[in-house]
């Protein structure tokens, strides 16, 4: 995922490296670094042409990281909803965007926090529900946070609580 340049801790690190690579004339490495960080090619082209002063801002860097991680993780169903919620939070709250970019924070870690909550809060499924679902097991439990709880877990994960 971050094979050549490693995981960047902030949009400022991305911009500093972009500036250094640009000044060295190493456009291919700049493009590779941007691709690793999910920075769209349109931004790279605008940056190279001098149309924008920096390669990315906090939101662009956060969304890029989410895009790269989601491409690798390939979330489905409820996990897609969690990812979309996180994207929305980044757009609404610049501090979340900064935190998403931090080294060590990841979609995998966030989803693991949600899964941990689910395992720790399993409830037995009613026998009539099991029968209606055609489940023949003697006992079934289910632990899935509601969306309000999931939003809090996601926020707490990225904000370090």
Report on this model:
- This protein has 161 residues and is mainly alpha-helical.
- The protein has 2 domains: 1-56, no CATH class; 76-161, no CATH class.
- 64% of the residues lie in helices and 2% in strands.
- The protein has 9 helices and 2 strands; from the N terminus they run αααααααβαβα.
- The chain has a two-stranded antiparallel ribbon with strand order 1-2.
- The longest helix has 16 residues, at 58-73.
- It is elongated, with a radius of gyration of 20 Å.
- 25% of the residues are buried.
- The mean pLDDT is 94.
What are the segments in which pLDDT stays under 50 over at least 5 consecutive residues? none
From the alpha-carbon coordinates, what is the Rg to the nearest angstrom?
Answer: 20 Å
Overall mean pLDDT stands at 94
Outline type: elongated
Strand content: under 5%
Secondary structure category: mainly alpha
Number of domains: 2
| Number of DSSP E strands | 2
Tell me about the largest β-sheet: 2 strands, antiparallel
Descriptive keywords:
single chain; mainly alpha; 9 helices; 2% strand; 161 residues; 2 domains; two-stranded antiparallel sheet
């Amino acid at each position: 995922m971050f094979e050549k340049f490693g995981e960047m801790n902030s949009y400022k690190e991305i911009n500093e490296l972009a500036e250094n690579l640009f000044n060295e004339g190493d456009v291919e490495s700049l493009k590779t670094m941007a691709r690793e960080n999910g920075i769209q090619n349109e931004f790279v082209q605008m940056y190279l042409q001098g149309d924008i002063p920096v390669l990315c801002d906090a939101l662009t860097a956060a969304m890029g990281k989410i895009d790269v991680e989601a491409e690798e993780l390939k979330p489905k169903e409820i996990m897609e909803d969690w990812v979309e919620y996180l994207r929305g939070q980044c757009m609404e709250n610049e501090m979340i965007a900064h935190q998403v970019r931090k080294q060590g924070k990841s979609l995998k870690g966030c989803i693991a926090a949600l899964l941990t909550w689910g395992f720790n809060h399993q409830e037995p499924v009613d026998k009539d529900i099991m029968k209606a679902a055609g489940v023949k097991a003697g006992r079934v439990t289910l632990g899935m946070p509601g969306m309000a709880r999931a939003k809090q877990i996601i926020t707490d994960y990225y904000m370090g609580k």
